[in-house]
Amino acid sequence: MTSATIDQKATGYTVRHALCMARASELAYKDEQTIEATARQWGFDRVRHHHTTFRPPFPLEDTQAYTLGGHSMIITSFRGTEPVKLHDWLSDATTPPWPGPGGKGYVHSPCR
Questions:
Q1: Are 70 and 44 spatial neighbours (Cβ–Cβ below 8 Å)?
Q2: Which of 28, 46, 48, 61 could be disulfide-bonded to 77 (CB atoms 3.0-4.6 Å)?
Q3: Cα distance between residue 91 and residue 82, in whole Å
């Protein structure tokens, strides 16, 4: 899958597209060079990396994400909690849950 392109015109659910999105989620844990190389292999010509940093004592923020831009699709993927990073766990513990899209599940509360 790493060398296959993503169907940027996909609008509905397919198992193949779901697998592509799972791989895009996994990619958020890779280094920037790997993300950029994979984006090109997948047919995306624009990549933007997003970072906030951990600055004690508070606010406790540490976010990594990327956005891929193509001709007909944009993908944004956020890195989740990394098990070996204490500040990720502290951030999770101190950030209240917020209802997710469509009232399903919970995500971190948006900053206000």
A1: yes
A2: 28
A3: 11
Characterize 53-90 residue by residue with b for buried, 16 or more Cβ atoms within 10 angstroms of its Cβ, and e for exposed. eeeeeeebebebebebebeebebebebeeeeeeeebee
Contact 77, 25 (CB under 8 A): yes
Burial class (CB in 10 A: 0-12, 13-18, 19+), 98: exposed
Q: Residues with Cβ < 8 Å from 55, sequence gap 6 or more?
A: 61
Q: Which tokens go with 75?
A: 């993908």
In tens, the pLDDT along 38-55 reads 999 999 999 999 876 656
* Per-residue confidence (pLDDT) for residue 42, from 0 to 100: 93
